[in-house]
Amino acid sequence: MIAAPSGAGKTTLVRALMARVTSLRFSISYTTRKPRPNEQDGRDYFFVDHAEFERMVAAGEFLEHARVFDNYYGTSKPQVESMLRKGENVLLEIDWQGAQQIRRAMPECQSIFILPPSREALEQRLRGRQTDNDEVIARRLRDSIADMSHWNEFDYVVVNDDFERATAELEMIVAGLGDGLRRDRSELQTLIRRLLG
């Protein structure tokens, strides 16, 4: 599982990781939010309306689901179980709420949290998308800071201050070589204080 606050660069990093580690299989989430201009149904997400999403929840079709920024997101239980039965390594791009649900359902899974190098970088990235107005960006920043407070629930933490290095660190974790990137490393403490303070 890979989680991050909005604006930390998770989606871009996941795409780069998937290109490098071809043995990984991506679990495509369902969402009720509208597609961004560069997104395709069935590639980035399965885009469904609220009624369909609620039907799937009631039918027990999600391994996890959560409401984030007025929209729902969920991980398909049949999709993940099918890939695991085939012996595939499955990658979930998820939020911290979903990660908690997945950990309860599959305690053996590995989890990675991506942090931005600073609050300023986070705001720049959110503004750089040019998809939200100032009010929405302010709310996303507040919510992102709240999301970052869950960093210590994850096995590993990657700081996205240099894209190439962050991608390489994700690759190391997936390969089982990520001991130096565990959440309890001392050099994270100063950054955490700056991000959450």
UniProtKB/TrEMBL annotation:
The gene is gmk. Keywords: ATP-binding, Cytoplasm, Kinase, Nucleotide-binding, Transferase. Its EC number is 2.7.4.8. This is Guanylate kinase. PANTHER family: GUANYLATE KINASE (PTHR23117:SF13), GUANYLATE KINASE-RELATED (PTHR23117). GO terms for cellular component: cytosol. Pfam families: Guanylate_kin. Essential for recycling GMP and indirectly, cGMP. Belongs to the guanylate kinase family. It comes from Steroidobacter agaridevorans. It catalyses: GMP + ATP = GDP + ADP. ATP binds at A4, P5, S6, G7, A8, G9, K10, T11. GO terms for molecular function: ATP binding; GMP kinase activity. Residues 1-175 form the Guanylate kinase-like domain. It is found in: Cytoplasm. HAMAP family: Guanylate_kinase.
